[in-house]
Structure formats: C-alpha cells, structure tokens
Amino acid sequence: MSFLEHVLTQTHLYTNTGVLSEVLLFMGGYVLALRHVDRENALLHEWWAFLNWLAGRLELDPARSWAAQLVALLGDSREAVAKLRSLYLEFSATYKKAQ
Questions:
Q1: What is the DSSP secondary structure assignment for residue 17, as one 8-state letter?
Q2: Which of 53, 68, 83, 84 is the least buried, fewest Cβ under 10 Å from its Cβ?
C-alpha cells in the first residue's frame, strides 16, 4: 500500500475528523515539506501525477484551486475521501504500470 493510499484509507491517523478538506490540506503540506528535503522522492512525482490525472478525469479548471474544486465536486465528508481513494486506485493501476 502506498503512503497516499494509506492516508486515504486511515484518515484518522493524519487528520482531525477525516473529511476531504483536511486530507487535502494534510497531503498538500506534507508534499510541500517533502519537496524541501527530497526533491527526487517518488511520492512527490506520484502526487503531482495524480493531481494532473484528476484534473483531466474530472475536468478541473487549472486556473482555480484544485482542492476547492475537489471539495465542490465530491463534497467535504469521509464519503468524499472514499471517492477520492477510488479515483486514486483507478489512477494507480495505470501509473504503476508506466513506472
């Protein structure tokens, strides 16, 4: 299980209430901090590839906040995190084959 899948599965370990906005804030902060210590970390590349894939899959507007758009599309709940996890698993099946 990848770190991102773990965060999307075990939200209570990383956030206060486990809703989508908290998960997105956690991942955004984690990736930002990671970028400063290890620019070559595979998680960085996977996270940005996932966001780019999501932008195409969900037709997100690149000029607007992707987090705000995801909350607007999926809702701000634990169920929304489950939807994002399903999308991640769909993405992951093709991403891992390409690596």
A1: S
A2: 68
DSSP string, 19-31: -HHHHHHHHHHHH
Structure tokens at 33: 């901090």
What pLDDT, on a 0 to 100 scale, did the predictor assign at position 42? Answer: 83
**Chunked mean pLDDT (size 10), the chain, 99 residues:** 94 96 94 87 89 94 91 94 96 82
Take residue 28 and report the two structure tokens written for it: 């955004």
Tell me how crowded residue 7 is: count the other CB atoms within 10 A of its CB.
19
Structure tokens at 43: 């998680």
In terms of pTM, does the model score above 0.85? yes
| Tokens standing for residue 89 | 């698993």
The torsion angle over the Cα atoms of residues 9, 7, 2 and 36, rounded to 10 degrees, is 170
